[in-house]
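Listing S7. Sequence submitted for prediction.
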Amino acid sequence: MPKEPRKRARKHRPEVVHDADDGEAAGAGPSWIVQSNEPQSTEEPLDPDLKAYFRSVDIKLQEWASEDSEQVILITDQLEDRHAFILAAISEIRGHEIELSEDPECSKIIEKIIRSLDDALLRSFFSNLLKHLPTLIKHRFGSHVCQTLLTSSAATLNREMQGITSGTSGEHQDSTTPSMKALILQVSESLLGDSLPLMSDASASPVIRTLLALLSTQSWIDILPQKRDSTGHPHTGKNRKPTHDRYQQRGIVTGKPLAAINANTPVPPEFILTAKRYLEHICSEATAEAMRDAVYDEVTSPALQVLVKLEAQQSSSNQSESLLDFILPGVVSGEKDVINEHSDHLDQIFRHPVGSHFIEAVVANASEQVFRQLWNRLIRRNMASLINDPVANFVIASAFGKVNEKGLEDVMPLPSTVWSECVESGRTGVIQALIRRSAELHSHEAEVVDIVCSAFGVQKDDDRRLIVPCVTTLTTIKTYREPPSTTPNMYGPRHGGKSRPRTKEPSIQGALVLQSLLRLDAPHSSIVLRSIEALTQEETLALAQSPVNSRILDVLLESPTVPYRSKRALVMTFIGCYQTLVDDRIGSFVGEKLWQAADPYLREKIANSLVEHEDALVASRYGKYFIKNANMWLLKKDPIKWRKKQAEKGHQNHSTKEGSTSQPQTKDGSASMAEPAKDTEEKREKRKREEQAADEIDGIFSTVKKKGKRPLV
């Protein structure tokens, strides 16, 4: 007989009695839901209708942002509608600031509204939210609103300090509204007493850091908000439109670009005094032991880094009982007994994943006197072990960027095993920093080249010809000559006990080392140039088509320390394979740089080598741009005119390079004064050519006799 279909559940299920006081179920493990430790808000729940209204506001703001990104020209009625819409949204926020800012969804919408306000509306909104800031700063979502408000106020404050007042007229343009400077000072006064516990609060610490950065900044670039897209995320990427520039803002309400940000605008003197009060209050309230423990805390340590920068700006780091003296005891005062007493702490702070960031901030902002004390009393004595530490090597790389010639002398006696271990572990940031600093000081360049050669085991002259393939793959000469299958894994056995054969793939770290070597002075950078010249044409072509190694050739062609003879030799190397080079995504960029570096004679040789491949390159996705730039059609039609044109281009490129080196650009754009004159000369020559062409045409037609009407018979 056929079976009856099984039912989806039993008829009589036992009822489960839920106990309100039950804890975790037996064997169920801990719950993944993190219980909030914040006190429950005493405000009433958010009205669903109000929440739905702000969802519609979010949609409208996204539409406006997309219109602004497309540079849509708005008419007056549209601007008035925007203005009225924003005013209505701000009116709905009034009285519900805490509920909206503490809501996970509405808090993001409030942040978008803050970024869309002009200066007048932002001051008014800041004034209304001022009394709620001490409460919101401790909330998980409200703290984000406070931080966005402070960050957006930086641009308004900058324009205010320039004497530029921009805003809209209406009920929110009130003469009684305080200035942005006064509002920030009021916030600073209200948070000064609780600044120490707020620094250790996970929600409030970022807001305190933003406030301290705003009070103590010497450059507005560090505090200005980034341009965001329609979704509220900051724009990322190398090629960004001018409208996405970090220092440009466009008012959504007005539809016009706001006044430009001047990075040279001085900070108000009241801000400097307030920042000093914060520093004195924190140093007086906290004990030295508590500060040393806070360096290792993920929440408090970033705030201490801002305070260290503030202390360095006020030139008080080298004083006793300063913040730096509390955290690094004995280093500033020079007491050896105190240093020995806290030797464990001073050694651990370099190797700790959180504490190392504090030391890096100290090194970056320290004055010359303080850095010399750090170098002599902490870094120099443990340099050999710190260079190859997984964490401390970043601090040493930062320190190498500030050493003087005497500091470089302290680095030279280190054993070669220290540098070879850097290559084996893949941590070459220290070597890169050492090469860059040697090139900047023009000192100890020969010793630095010897250090690189010893690190890769290429001390012999014959082996030095292989320095490029060795450095690009981060392998020693012995390992490079071994077959890949027998090369052991330098990082140890893989999981399961099986070792992975090391592949000879190009590495970014190795390419950066070679780029730094090419920036050394001419006699010392020749080690890389000779190694590139020793490569075969196929190997050089593979180097140019690599996304990583092609940067080496870019620096070779652009570096002023590389002699022209080496650049010419590199251009000659690719003759015969330019059709393969430019028909590649990466190689096409290298081909353009080779064309720019070539003289007219070499350009003609390159162009003649591509005549038989012209049709294939014109149809190529990448090669068509090179053919267009080379002007192959003119070369075949009139070679003399082509040579003359290339000679003029070469002269212009040479004069441009000389102008860029002799007259560097200034911040106010004074170095670009030669551009209008150049444009005027080009227009004048173009007008002269047009007049000559018109005269020739008139002359031709003037020789032709006009035919009269035939006589009537």
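Caption to Listing S7: primary sequence and predicted structure tokens for the chain studied. Residues 286-402 form one domain. The chain is about 60% helix and 0% strand.
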